[in-house]
């Protein structure tokens, strides 16, 4: 994979030369106490999460996270990211020997180096070809005047993971990762209509990278990048961290579902014209049966991880359609288990008892794909019983949801086997699945459809 530093090293050099004309980077004062190093195993044992219904402050606000001491806007509140190189304690990049923009903070500890972020901070303006110039020296001083770096709360809505990231670098170049650049021979000129001259922040229509992270941070977010072989790059959300003295790394801090607050009061109540999205205004509630919060919870003669694809899928449907976020895989598993819903390590098809409990309508639609499409377009969800690949690794049975339909009649799904179970399962939820995979005849992967149920709100 190409290094972001390799791609943008001439951009960084330009920025550093501009910065050097305004101030000299100095070592952290000897009176400052370096941050305590961190235990990676312990910090990964936490349960970072993303709350799709949090009506928090805007990620592009001057008072983000309730912290009124932050006077500057972030350059973007949402957008794709790229992979940066790790840095050493002096802030140097191994491949080039160059230092990141705010290298003095790299000496604070490994956490600052593992969880740093690069963005095109608004103290500089950028031209399409990667050149930059300082436009707000007061803001630049704000970034560098403290004993610790400024911190950003970053969330991956797809994986429900959040981190606190330290602002140590500036970039990447505006053209990196854009479709415009790819369409013009992967060159940085000519500039597109949405980026003429020098630009501060991120204009409407921009589809490139707005940030970059080293490998540890990307792994913690479970993030797919926009300048690599990843077919479905994640759009992360960015806010100033409410606690600017926090240790960088995974966090349980709630991140707003949409940085501008636009999802407030809508998630769990309204689908889009073609169904439910994973993020944004028409986001559904998603759960994963391998999530540590639910994985070992009993169901049938096993647990949710091994046997609970049914309760997990129904929990997603119920919480989404009713807006009741107290409904989880655990609560559904408990009720279903005591009402004839489990059979060995699996689920019966007694879904109607869940409808009676949580005020939803469950209709057996067999293998009628057109009825499934109409259910989705009407704001409902479709529960699917399936045997074998591609939605299950073995030839066993599996339960999941159809959440959206494309204009040509194909499908998006919500598979309770998600990123906790492995990257391939998480990727399934952003893949368009040809309708041929929803046939009772064995498909080219070896699986076949058994039955479907239309789930709607009463």
β-strand number: 16
Mean pLDDT: 80
Q: Quick one: overall form?
A: elongated
Main β-sheet description: 7 strands, mixed
Distance between the termini: 50 Å
| Gyration radius, rounded | 24 Å
Low-confidence stretches: 1-68, 256-268
Total of helices: 12
Order of helices and strands: HHEHEEEHEEHEHEEEEHHHHEHEEEHE
**What percentage of amino acids are in beta strands?**
15-25%
Give me a quick take on this structure.
This protein is α+β, with helices and mostly antiparallel strands and 458 residues long. Helix 8 packs across helix 9. Helix content is 21%, strand content 19%.
Q: How would you describe the overall organization of this protein?
A:
This protein starts with a helix and ends with a strand. It has helices at residues 4-20, 40-44, 110-114, 137-144, 179-183, 215-221, 304-307, 309-322, 329-337, 352-358, 369-377, 423-428, and strands at residues 78-83, 116-119, 124-126, 132-134, 151-156, 161-170, 209-213, 236-240, 249-250, 298-299, 302-303, 360-366, 381-387, 397-405, 411-414, 448-457. The strands form four sheets. Strands 1, 2, 5, 6, 7, 8 and 9 form a seven-stranded mixed sheet that branches. The chain has twelve helices and 16 strands. The chain is an alpha+beta fold and 458 residues long. The longest helix is centred in the first third of the chain and has 17 residues, at 4-20. α8 (309-322) crosses α9. Helices cover 21% and strands 19% of the residues. β5 (151-156) and β6 form a beta hairpin. Mean pLDDT is 80; it is low at 1-68 and 256-268.
């Amino acid at each position: 994979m190409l290094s972001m530093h390799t791609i943008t090293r001439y951009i960084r050099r330009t920025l550093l030369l501009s910065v050097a004309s305004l101030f000299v980077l100095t070592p952290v004062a000897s009176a400052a106490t370096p941050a305590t190093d961190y235990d990676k195993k312990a910090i990964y044992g936490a349960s970072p999460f993303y709350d799709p219904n949090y009506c928090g402050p805007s990620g592009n606000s001057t008072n983000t996270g309730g912290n009124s001491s932050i006077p500057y806007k972030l350059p973007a509140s949402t957008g794709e990211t790229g992979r940066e190189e790790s840095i050493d304690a002096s802030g140097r990049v191994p491949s080039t020997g160059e230092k990141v923009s705010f290298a003095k903070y790299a000496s604070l500890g490994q956490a600052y180096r593992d969880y740093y972020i690069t963005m095109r901070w608004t103290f500089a303006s950028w031209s399409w070809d990667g050149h930059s110039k300082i436009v707000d020296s007061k803001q630049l001083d704000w970034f560098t005047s403290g004993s610790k770096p400024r911190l950003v709360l970053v969330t991956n809505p797809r994986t429900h993971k959040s981190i606190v990231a330290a602002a140590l670098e500036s970039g990447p170049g505006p053209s990196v990762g854009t479709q415009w650049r790819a369409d013009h021979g992967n060159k940085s000129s000519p500039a597109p209509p949405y980026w003429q001259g020098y630009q501060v922040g991120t204009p409407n229509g921009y589809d490139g990278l707005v940030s970059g992270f080293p490998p540890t941070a990307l792994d913690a977010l479970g993030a797919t990048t926009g300048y690599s072989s990843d077919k479905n790059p994640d759009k992360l959300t960015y806010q100033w961290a409410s606690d600017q003295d926090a240790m960088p790394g995974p966090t349980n801090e709630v991140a707003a579902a949409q940085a501008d607050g636009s999802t407030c009061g809508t998630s769990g109540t309204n689908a889009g014209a073609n169904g439910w999205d994973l993020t944004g205004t028409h986001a559904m509630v998603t759960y994963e049966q391998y999530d540590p919060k639910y994985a070992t919870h009993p169901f049938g003669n096993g647990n949710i991880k091994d046997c609970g694809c049914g309760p997990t899928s129904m929990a997603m449907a119920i919480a989404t359609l009713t807006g009741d976020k107290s409904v989880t895989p655990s609560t559904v598993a408990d009720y279903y288990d005591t009402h004839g819903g489990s059979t060995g390590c699996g689920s019966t098809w007694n879904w109607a008892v869940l409808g009676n409990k949580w005020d939803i309508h469950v209709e057996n639609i067999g293998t009628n794909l057109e009825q499934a499409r109409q259910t989705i377009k009407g704001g409902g969800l479709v529960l699917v019983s399936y045997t074998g690949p591609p939605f299950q690794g073995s030839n066993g049975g599996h339960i999941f949801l159809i959440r959206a339909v494309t204009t040509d009649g194909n499908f998006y799904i919500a598979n309770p086997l998600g990123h906790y179970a492995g990257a391939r399962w998480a990727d399934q939820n952003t893949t368009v699945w040809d309708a041929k995979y929803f046939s009772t005849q064995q498909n080219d992967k070896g699986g076949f459809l058994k039955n479907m149920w239309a789930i709607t709100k009463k």
